[in-house]
TrEMBL record, chains A, B:
The keyword RNA-binding does not apply. This is Transcriptional regulator, GntR family. Residues 12-79 form the HTH gntR-type domain. It comes from the Bacteria. The keyword 4Fe-4S does not apply.
Length: 232, 232
DNA sequence: GTGAACTAAGTTGTATACGATATTGCGCTC
DNA sequence: GAGCGCAATATCGTATACAACTTAGTTCAC
């Protein structure tokens, strides 16, 4: 399921690191929406007791990455179309202005880091690791909030990015072109020029493009797992 | 500490209801910033084991209302000046546009509810219950996000409102005039007229006024509890 | 008398045990 | 053979037990 399954690594896991590991697995689509996350199973996988597993699952449920159903267990969340719209609505409010702030405060070191992200994303795609590419693409957005020096907004954006990855897993229309890094390249240019207004506009359009590449018509919500589809 | 202390009520508490009860107590300033929240103490107060208490404290720590210090325990959070600025920065991005949406979608029933909130706030103030007044004042903002039909943004705003109450506890300048409901009255008028542009502008100014009524100079961060002041 | 070190008490961190609930499969009835 | 009901199994919910850490208090050395 995750690399934690290999019994060889002797890492000592905490609820936080387990939550992070699971979040990354979800973000990279190694754990697709609807996957059952059994407590015993996870505990054995990580070599910890259910106590810590439950803490990690709770943390993920607060970020809406995992849905906790009483007496039924934890499942990787399956955002509805309405929820998908809400997530991008929130991103539209937060990210453009944050990109503006980031452009103003941009440092050369941060620019290098952003460029490194794009390079790594390209490499991952060339290796066919679309999951890792998607993850890196998300980190790009989070890094922008970090540069803007807004940790509260960063936390919100981080959650929204992860949820976006679930939305992409469910509603992505054209599989071919991943998160087109064209937009990220253009953003970097704006950052390099410290052009806040341009960065804000580019981010706004980037998010609109992303949303446009999704199929958010209310046709078939994708039955997925028979019973889950009926919400029971 | 909270009404849960009275042993008479036979309510069965869950981690969620305990978290909600604690959050309200924090919001109403019955649990001031820096208060130690001992697990055994809380467990006895609510008549539950530490397991559920820990779950509730974790939930509150994800909302940044409680700070968890490893092997030290849980404390009501004490936002720094920088954090206070971040919270209001985030609110400035989220709430005005959300007020705009709310104005467009406003219903008569929601208008009545908003008015009821203001009335209840006045009553609380007249009774000298400033804590309850502050809580209701916050609920007013959350209700707006509900009307806007944005549950994701509502969750963010809800967190920011609660954190704002901590900020007010620490940095409020003029004790007399609580969250001046003048602004809320004006917002209701804009909502009644379904004037989105006006509501957005009023909300923006309301937040600026609120921030202006705080003392966010970096003078003395308020030592509070001697050792806590040194971050140890 | 000051300081360090050790000891003891208290609190949190984690695992485990037990009870409650949901689900599955079997067998019975019709 | 179809449908219902009951039992068995599996999983989650909560409490409790024990280990680890922090902290406070005391003693001893200097």
């Amino acid at each position: 399921m995750t690399e934690a399954m290999t019994p060889s690594d002797a890492k000592t896991w905490t609820s936080e690191t387990v939550a992070g590991d699971l979040e990354r697995a979800i973000h990279e689509h190694r754990l697709p929406p609807g996957t059952k996350l059994g407590e015993d199973e996870l505990g054995e996988a990580y070599g910890i007791s259910r106590t810590l597993v439950r803490a990690a699952l709770q943390a993920l449920s607060y970020r809406r990455l995992v849905e906790l159903k009483r007496n039924r267990g934890a499942f990787v969340a399956q955002p509805t179309v309405a929820e998908a719209r809400e997530v991008f609505e929130a991103r539209a409010l937060l990210e453009p202005r944050t990109a503006h702030s980031a452009a103003v405060r941009m440092t050369d070191a941060a620019l290098d880091e952003l460029r490194a992200h794009i390079t790594a994303e390209h490499d991952a795609l060339r290796e066919g690791d679309t999951g890792r590419a998607l993850f890196l693409s998300g980190q790009f957005h989070i890094l922008i909030a970090q540069v803007a020096d807004q940790r509260t907004i960063e936390a919100f954006v981080s959650e929204l990015i992860s949820r976006s990855s679930l939305i992409i897993a469910l509603y992505w229309r054209r599989r071919a072109a991943m998160c087109e890094s064209q937009a990220h390249h253009a953003l970097i240019d704006a950052f390099e020029a410290r052009d806040g207004v341009l960065a804000e506009e580019l981010m706004k359009n980037h998010l609109l493009d992303l949303m446009a590449s999704l199929d958010l018509r209310n046709l078939v919500p994708r039955p997925q797992s028979l019973r889950e589809a009926l919400g029971r």
